[in-house]
DNA sequence: ACCCTGACGCGTC
DNA sequence: GGACGCGCCAGGG
C-alpha cells in the first residue's frame, strides 16, 4: 500500500482511460466529475503519477483553456500535439482548435 | 525529517 | 480587463 491517495489517483486514471479517441477533456472537468474539492490541481498531480500507466492517454487532458499545458512532460514536447492530431484533434500553437467541439465532458457523456 | 516545487481553476483586487 | 493569491497533495533533493 503506497497511500490512500492512490485511491483518487486511480479514479482519475479510470476517467482518463475512458476518454474517446479524438476527444479531449480538461483537468477541471475530471475533478468536477469526481467531486474533488481540491479541484483540478489534484488531477494534475494524478497525471504525474500516470507515467507508469500505459492505458492512460494523458495527452487527451488539457487545461480549461484547451492549452497543452503538460506537453513538456512527455518524452518529447511535440509528442502530445502529435498524438492529438494523429487522433483527429487539430492543435495549433499548443492549443486545441474547436475545443468545445472536441471537448468530452465526463459528467455529461459519462453516466 | 524539512523545504520546495509542480500537468489547475476560480475568486478578488 | 489584467494580475495576484489561495486551496490542496505528493514526490524528490
Q: What is the highest CATH level, the class?
A: Mainly Alpha
List SSEs in N-to-C order.
Answer: HEHHEHEEHH
Strand content: 5-15%
Uncertain stretches: none
Biggest sheet descriptor: 2 strands, parallel
User: What structural category arises from helix and sheet content?
Assistant: mainly alpha
Count of all domains: 1
Regarding quaternary structure, how should these chains be classified?
Answer: single chain
What is the 3D shape? globular
Average pLDDT, all residues: 91
Beta-strand segment tally = 4
What is the CATH topology descriptor?
A: Arc Repressor Mutant, subunit A
Summarize the amount of helix as a percent range.
40-55%
CATH architecture: Orthogonal Bundle
How many helices? The count is: 6
Distance between the termini: 30 Å
Strand order of the largest sheet: 1-2
What is the H level of CATH, i.e. the homologous superfamily?
Winged helix-like DNA-binding domain superfamily/Winged helix DNA-binding domain
Cα-based radius of gyration, to the nearest Å: 13 Å
Descriptive notes:
This protein has 111 residues and is mainly alpha-helical. It has a single domain, classed as Arc Repressor Mutant, subunit A (Orthogonal Bundle). The longest helix has 12 residues. The mean pLDDT is 91. Helix content is 43%, strand content 7%. Strands 1-2 form a two-stranded parallel ribbon. The chain has a two-stranded antiparallel ribbon with strand order 3-4. Helix 1 crosses helix 3. It has six helices and four strands, in the order αβααβαββαα. The chain binds a DNA duplex (13 and 13 nucleotides) through helix 2, helix 3 and strand 2. One of its GO terms (molecular function) is methyltransferase activity.
Amino acid at each position: 500500500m503506497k497511500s490512500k491517495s492512490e485511491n483518487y489517483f486511480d479514479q482519475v486514471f479510470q476517467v482518463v482511460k475512458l476518454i474517446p479517441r479524438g476527444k479531449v477533456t480538461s483537468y477541471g472537468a475530471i475533478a468536477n466529475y469526481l467531486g474533488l474539492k481540491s479541484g483540478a490541481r489534484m488531477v494534475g498531480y494524478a497525471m504525474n503519477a500516470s507515467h507508469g500507466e500505459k492505458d492512460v492517454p494523458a495527452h487527451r487532458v488539457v487545461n480549461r483553456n484547451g492549452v497543452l499545458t503538460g506537453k513538456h512532460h512527455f518524452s518529447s514536447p511535440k509528442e502530445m500535439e502529435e498524438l492529438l492530431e494523429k487522433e483527429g484533434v487539430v492543435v495549433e500553437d499548443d492549443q486545441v482548435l474547436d475545443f468545445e467541439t472536441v471537448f468530452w465532458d465526463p459528467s455529461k457523456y459519462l453516466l
